[in-house]
Amino acid sequence: MLWNRNFSLLIAANILLYIAVYMLFPLIHRWMIQAWSCSELQAAGVTAVFGIALFLPGAFNNYLVDTFSRKNVCTRSIMLLALVGILYPYVSSVEMVVLLRILQGALFGIVLMATGSTLAIDVTPSNNRNAANRVFTWSSIVGMLSGIIIGIEGGNYLSFDTLLYFSAFLCAVAIVLVSMVTVCFRAPLDLPLCSFDRFILFRTLLPGINMMTVPMVLGMLFIMISNAFFYLCIGSGFLIYLLVRQVFTRPMNGRIQIFIGQLFTGAGLMLLCNADTGEYLYGAGLLVGIGVGFSIGQFLRMMILLPLHCERGTGYHTYQLLWETGVMLGIWISQYVRQAGNNNPYQVALGICVIGFLLYQVYIHRYFTKHYQTN
């Protein structure tokens, strides 16, 4: 059974964790501009360094979760993530802010590995693990969008310090939920300190790089649009995709699915190129949400099916790292384009969407078909 008690607890914890982390992006970006007189590009750079830091602990991941208690690795990393988050008002330089972002990124990287690619698999029967990876991904997107909305709207009603404590509170609730999960004891293994296990699976790296074009577009929108209802529209579009997927249960041809996904996303971006207010904005959000759903549905399918049996955790963590990195790249690219002033950021996002579509159709689909058949 997929929705057992342990898995449900992890899903709830994952949603809260993503809200706690993603609500900080608009908050810290705005705070860097107001409190530190940073430019938009500098603030985006400080925000996006989080994505680079995700990779810092990766080589130690396998050693951590197979030498120490997996729950303890997860809960203590979340606790440190929360504690670092409430230190922002007390720093005395931009360099210290960057250091805190790096620390949070590294800790979040450990948490991602310990939850989605380790604990979620541990508590799920082997015949339901593909579905578990999908559900975990959908819950992450729900938490991500909710966090962005809270970060945007919360700043209008609450102080920066209060919202930081709220983020820490959500982390604390996530810790309690993870602590309630029952995981079978695993004897410590004699493992090397550093390895690529539970870090990066090179077999899935090319499809993962192609997949990054989807979160890059989202990241660009996160920094350009500060209308909370727009993100509700994206969530609604994503829900429409999930409903369509429930009706048509047979796997869709990958080329067609990516075509539909990028077509909807591109249509939404074209609306934004014309106008990013009113009905244009909300219609674009709905189209982008549907497009992201279709696109990620196929990319995630590849990232789940390409790993060998013993590589599932590493393959899923590769997906998680590249997704988060794509969002951070999008945040930085949007501000770089704005500062350069030569291009409309929505046009650049549309170009990224087209590149992602062409790369999949020309090469990645054949790569997946070839390697999946030999799996």
Describe, in short, the structure shown.
By secondary structure, this protein is mostly helical. It has helices at 5-22, 24-36, 40-53, 61-67, 70-85, 94-122, 129-154, 160-179, 205-211, 213-224, 228-247, 254-274, 278-305, 312-340, 345-373. It contains 15 helices and no strands.
Subunit arrangement of the protein: single chain
CATH architecture of the largest domain: Up-down Bundle
Order of helices and strands: HHHHHHHHHHHHHHH
Structural class: mainly alpha
Per CATH, the superfamily of the largest domain is MFS general substrate transporter like domains
Q: Biggest β-sheet, characterized?
A: none
Q: How large, in whole angstroms, is the Cα Rg?
A: 20 Å
Mean pLDDT across all residues, rounded?
93
Which fold name corresponds to the CATH topology of the largest domain?
Growth Hormone, Chain: A
Which stretches are poorly predicted, pLDDT < 50 over at least 5 residues?
Answer: none
Number of domains: 2
User: What is the CATH level 1 assignment of the largest domain?
Assistant: Mainly Alpha
Portion of residues in beta strands equals under 5%
Helical stretch tally:
15
Assign a percent range to the helix content.
over 70%
State the distance separating the first and last CA atoms. 26 Å
Give the tally of β-strands. Answer: 0
**Shape, principal axes of CA atoms:** globular
Organism: Phocaeicola coprocola
GO molecular function: transmembrane transporter activity
Keywords: Membrane, Transmembrane, Transmembrane helix
InterPro entries: MFS (IPR011701), MFS_Exporter (IPR052714), MFS_trans_sf (IPR036259)
